[in-house]
């Protein structure tokens, strides 16, 4: 069985650190915590779990801090988390099995990172991350902001998930770092351009964000998932600027980089639905329902667009053109994912009353 070092970098995490560490304390064999300048009770909480608590002077470089934490690890594999991450009980069970059965020839293990949830507890946004890496390979973190772990070799996808559960976030921190680097004339890599544009978008600086997304795409050196994501984020920018045609153009642009993704099909479908072009909307929503859901690559996944959302929108579309039977069928498909959604239940009651008046049997009922 492998031994695992957990590495975290922290600063003022008294609200989340105990929750994080308690979720994995009985799984890992060593806990390394690097503090970058806490002024609250973070260190006191850390000492409940480990004596391996180190100070690292903050130099506005996340990769430097993470690499320092990795340098302190001594076990076979290194697990990295953030203080506002947690491994839930079911995933902890799967993690223990993984620890007991992992082939030592594996260089890195990816885990699903669950970033968002809907009102019913369903995952709405997720991504895969290389989470557990072989220490002897000396994999390194790269990037002052939005850093990434550069790995290679034998990489496997696990069924373990890490859940992000943030309580607070310094929304200006990353933007300020990028702005400083940009102001002193630092040459941005394609990845820097992409993440700087993301920060600008998050701060509703749409026109400037568009400029940097275009600079990123024009390098033609971006990771394919970032290229595709940029098209969606450009659409977000144009939506914020109320430029519907450019929003549609940006969504269609994603097809230059890969086959259609469900989230873009839904976005295009919404454009046509909003414009009253119902048959066009139906085509794109139907396409979204037929696409295979991919969860093994490292790109972000918009789960609703691959599950219930296109069916709910098809219910709306078919109701608009008077095809109540198909509207009902798609509403039932959406209900499989969100059985207690008031709008879906309201649709069900409404459509059943119409079909009953028309003497139509409900789908699935005997004729």
TrEMBL record:
Residues 5-91 form the Glycosyltransferase 2-like domain. The keyword Zinc does not apply. Keywords: Transferase. The keyword Repeat does not apply. GO terms for molecular function: transferase activity. It comes from the Bacteria. SMART domains: TPR (SM00028). This is Glycosyl transferase. It comes from Paenibacillus glacialis. The lineage of its organism: Bacteria, Bacillati, Bacillota, Bacilli, Bacillales.
